[in-house]
Amino acid sequence: MRKYTFKTQRPKIVVIGGGTGLPVVLNGLRKQAVDITAVVTVADDGGSSGIIRNYVNVVPPGDIRNVMVALSSWPDLYKDIFQYRFQGDDQFFAGHAIGNLIIAALTEMKSGVFDAVQELSNMMQVDGHVYPAANEALTLHGKFSDGTELVGEAEITAAHKSLERVWVTDKNGKEPQAVQPVIDAIMAADQIVLGPGSLFTSILPNLTIGNIGRAVCESDAEVVYICNIMTQKGETDNFSDADHVRVLNRHLGQNFINTVLVNTEKVPEDYMDFHKFNEVSKQVSHDFRGLREQNCRVISSNFLKLRDNGAFHDGDQVVAELMNLVGHSDVFR
């Protein structure tokens, strides 16, 4: 992979999201001469993270764990131990990743996930900053197009119904706020990257935190959205790339997305294993006119990486475009 260098100080790039898409971008960015901050969702309540959240009353650690590994300079053996997930016949520990348990323990020791993650980042030799979007576990709410509402990320995803909007609340049912370092990083950023990841359950849970959404809109940074390759059942069925951006803009009340990265390579027919990847339905359609009507610059290319009968973003290709964009910004001309 080509490494981009800059004559001035390292560009500050803030990546906001969650799920499996975020580490793909971070793995590529850490090879570049950039200052990385990852802002990670804390509204996940499924899988091992959900079980730990329910029984230990801490922020769901799964997305944070994967991001820390992506940015860690640890030897591969240490990363593998941190990522190790106990087998199904291990009873009490079944399905839990060791890293999730460590993050949960540190959260109790430090009386909050933010300080816990900073301590663990030092220990894991993380290249950059990993910031939980809030210092407590948040609850995701979803309103569907039929007027019904559900609470909880896992419940919303499992409903497989058309979503109209989502929002998050804290443990008291009130609007949460991010800690100040998150806001400071966004306001100081040269580039803000959203995604790739689930629109309603990985990206918007961060942006609907009041002061994060406001900071993203007020920042002078270029806001880049990496559009998903495949639609997701119940979340984005039949969505075009312009529909994804339209939902983001609607949630924040303005056209804040500056640039969209769109994959134009077709996923071969009969390649996808829809049983294994049962949350996806079909490839995202294109509506370049709809994107331009929302004042978006469109960068379309082959960002596709086929792996394990699934369609993913090619992290190196995505990062190459991000570097081109930040390299031609006003700050780094």
From TrEMBL:
<dbReference type="InterPro" id="IPR002882">
    <property type="entry name" value="CofD"/>
</dbReference>
<dbReference type="Pfam" id="PF01933">
    <property type="entry name" value="CofD"/>
</dbReference>
<keyword id="KW-0963">Cytoplasm</keyword>
<dbReference type="GO" id="GO:0008360">
    <property type="term" value="P:regulation of cell shape"/>
</dbReference>
<protein>
    <recommendedName>
        <fullName>Putative gluconeogenesis factor</fullName>
    </recommendedName>
</protein>
<dbReference type="InterPro" id="IPR038136">
    <property type="entry name" value="CofD-like_dom_sf"/>
</dbReference>
<dbReference type="GO" id="GO:0005737">
    <property type="term" value="C:cytoplasm"/>
</dbReference>
<dbReference type="GO" id="GO:0043743">
    <property type="term" value="F:LPPG:FO 2-phospho-L-lactate transferase activity"/>
</dbReference>
<keyword id="KW-0808">Transferase</keyword>
<comment type="similarity">
    <text>Belongs to the gluconeogenesis factor family.</text>
</comment>
<dbReference type="InterPro" id="IPR010119">
    <property type="entry name" value="Gluconeogen_factor"/>
</dbReference>
<comment type="function">
    <text>Required for morphogenesis under gluconeogenic growth conditions.</text>
</comment>
